[in-house]
Each structure stands twice: as structure tokens, then as C-alpha cells.
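Incident review: delayed structure delivery

Summary: a single-chain prediction request sat in the queue longer than the usual turnaround. Root cause was a stuck worker, restarted by the on-call engineer. No data loss occurred. The affected request and its eventual output are reproduced below so the record is complete for anyone auditing the incident later.

Affected input:
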Amino acid sequence: MSNRLPPAWSKHLRVPSGPKASPPLPKAKPLPPVQSDDMLLRLALELQKAERLAEAQELCLRVLARTPNHPLSLYILGTLGLGFDNELAITYFARAADQQPSNPYYQFSLGEAYLKVGDYPPAIKYLQRACELKPDLVEAHCGLAQAYGKFDKADTALLIYLRALEIDRDHPQVRIGLADTLIDLGRMDEAAACLKEAIARRLNVAGAYQVIVNTRKFSTEPPELTSILGELGKPSISADESSGLHLAAGKVLNDLDRYDEAMDHFVKAKALKAHDFDIGSHRRWVDSLIGLFDADLLASKAGYGNPSEAPVFILGMPRSGTTLTEQICSSHPEVHGAGELTKLWRMATSIGLKREPGQPFGETLRSMTIQQSQALAEEYLSDLSLYSSTAPRILDKLPHNFERIGLIAILFPNARFIHCRRDAIDNCLSCFFSNLQQDHSYSYDLRTLGLAYREYDRLMRHWQAMFPGRIFENRYEDMISDQEGQSRRLIDHLDLNWDDACLRFFDKPGSVRTISRWQVRQPIYTSSVKRWKNYEGRIQPLIEALGDLAEL
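Output delivered after worker restart:
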């Protein structure tokens, strides 16, 4: 085998995007005997292209059975795992890269897999190596820039995107990534100009419109709205493109107070998404968490973990004010905002705290020794120190860490929690209007969204009962009505002296890396409070599902 992936094969080495959960692959059909490794792998690639993934997997495993550590077989297995089991994909890519360290495609895919799971330092390492091995591999440059951006180094990301632009001015990933980075840095006008050029050159038009409408709030109808509606009328657009364009149109129309028209587009956008969220399975998952993390378990783990006070967890439902809260707290000179880190989620998965029906739940945690807990805590702190090695407080603002409060409390008995809560209907409606990804598929249907919110609320009530006084409740509406008072309470919860910089969070230098990038660069505003009343006649399924949590 060559040390380089044959270009004619490389175009097939991608699996359609799927959920992060690991659905069982269909049973493989009997395959005819094939003699050489090369022929087996060529057939595996054809099967993968036809989405006959189980059969492709079987052929790769057959190759490994007689040629252990065959690099291309390992590599194909890695591509089969992407989107289904990203951790397993990393394992296969790492083995392939170890066998052929000079293959840029192996380095690129390993870095890309780390990027998918949100582990940015190794993603940077391997994507950088891919760029060195193949300087014209524009996708590697884009991945490297994205990893640097996620690692709070947007200035470096910008330079890499500009370098990628020199390689291929017509690559849609470059244009959108460059504009996204400019928005992260608050350079909205430059981002808009970049996106308009992408649209003029017909480069990822739907993606460009979806980004451009989020660079500002519209007070008069912009020409972009007519263009977006025109794009929606074209029969050639895909479901994904159509969904994005409907969201873009909905956002503009909402800004213009044309609420019925906006809702029509939001509903159409979400109807094009895969509605695969199983609320019954989700309830059983919450039951399992509540049953596992009871008073007896927590008492048995007293004294475990690491006593560090550095970690602070900002959590809650998406669109509940987590980004605003992070921006206020990280404006304090002794606080560093690390963004939405996936480390805790990956650690929880590694010890069996994952959603796998029929599998034992929590046994590894129950049997965990104090030494094992200390090792896990040290692993997390080591990762956290990559973001800041000096700040007394470091913020991890992954919203769905509310599912892992019990584990966090065992590993870090002195960690602080900030729970962001918002009017339930406003919160859910904001989720519905946002382009949340497959991990948040509960947000694609109004009724399911309300029922999922009830489960979040039920779990948070359990944590509050288990850890009385330890979880700071930060209501969005309280921040809006009393910015200074609530900000002072936040900083007091962090056991830090007050600093007036926290009142001017919107002037904080650096990048902002979430959906709320435009909003958090503005002073506190009130237009998002009780916004749902503009849509009251269209959201009854949501209100009914929320039940007594809906504050009418």
C-alpha cells in the first residue's frame, strides 16, 4: 500500500452525518470470498458509498484479522464510526496515523474527529500536521482554523482562514468560516461583506444567508429577505438548505415584528429536520440519573475527587442566558471563560453514564475508588489548565452539564454551579427559533420541546434537593430588571471581590463563540422578555406540554 490515500478512493471516505448515539448497524449480508486485502478494501469502499455500512465494516475487520494494523482498513473503520461513535472513530484513526504518520489524510481525519468531540488541543495538533504534510489541503486549514476558534484563539483562526482563502478562493467552507470568525471577534460589518461576496459567487448561499441575518437586528426590511425567499422558491435546494433559509427568513421577519409570517418559516424549518427524539426513552434516562445519584451514593463518595475551587459550571437549557452569564462573569479579571467544553460529557460516557437501553447503568460509578475519582478529576483539571493556568475561576458553560451535576459534585466537591433559568415559554421558543443541532432534536417539535423542558426541570429539582444552597439560581429576568444587583450576586457566589468591569461585559475584548454572539455584544435589553406573547396563538402545543411550568 502507498503511504498516501489514493485520491480516487478518498472522495468516498465519508459517512452521512448521523446522531451521536450509536444505533445498531443493519445485519450484514453474506459476502463472496475475495482474496486480496486490496480487493476487500475496494469493495468495502463501494459498500460504504452505498451506505451498506455493516458489510463494509465486516470486510475491514476481515482484513485486520489477517493483516493486523492494516492502515487503510483502520482508516475506513474510522470513517464508518464518524457520527455514530466518534470515540471509536478516534481510536481507529489514531491507529492508522500511527502506522503511517506521513499520510496527511490520516492526520486530517484524526484531527477532524477530535474536533467533532470538542477536544481542541489534539485537534489542533493533528490538523496542523496535516497542513504541514499537504499544504494545499484546504479542508485541513479550515478544520485547524475552526479548532483554534473554539480554543478561544480567534485571531489565529482568522490568519489561517486568510491563508486558506489564498489556496482556494471559491471554497464555501473557507468563506463561511472566515465570516464566522469575524463575527466571533465582533467585526460584524466585515463579516457581512465577506458573506455578501460568498452569495455573489454562489458559494454555500443558504449557509451564508443564515449567518448574515445574525450579524445585526433589522428595523426595516432588508434586500436579503427578498433574496432568501427567492432561494426558497428554487426546486434544486436540499432539505438542509431549505431549513436554513427558512430559519433565516424567520429571524428577519421576527425582527420586523411580522410574527405570523416568521412563525410560518420557523415551523417549516423544523419540519425539515429529523424528528427522532424519543421522549419516553428520555424520561427513563432522567429516572436513571435520579435513581443513581441519591443521598446514599453521594454520602458514600464524600471526600472523593479533587478539592480545587477553579471549576465553575454554568448550565441550564440552551438559550437560557448561559452566554450572557459567562460574559458577565468572565469580565472579572480573576475569571476565565473557557466556553462550552465537552470533557465532562466524554468522561461521563467513558464510565458508563450514557444512554444505552438494556445496558447496566451506573455500576462503574458505584464501584469507583477514591483513587479513580482523583484521577478523573485530575484529567479534567489538566484539560481546563490548557485554557488558563492562572485564573482562580475557570468557567465551563456547556448547558447540558445539568445532566452531570451529580458526577461533577463527586469529582469536585468545591466546584460552583450557576444554573441559568428563564421564563419556560420564552426559553423553549428561543430554542425552537434557533439552529440547534441533532443533539438537541427535542427542539424540533413544539410539544416534544415542552415535554423535554419538564424533564429538565424535574432533574434540576432533584439536584437542588441533593445539594441545597450549592446551586446558584440565575434568572434571566432578574438580570434584565436588576443588572448590577444580580451581577454582584453572581460574583459573590464565585467568592470574588466585585469589579465594575462586570457591568460593561459588552465591551469585553476577545471572541464570543455561541449563537448569542451578536446579542451579548449589546448592553442589557428587555425585548426578549415575554417575547412568546407575540406568538401565543401559534404555540398552544408548547404551552399545553409545559403545563404548570408555563407562566401565563
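Verification: The longest strand covers residues 311-316.
Action items: add queue-age alerting; document worker restart procedure.
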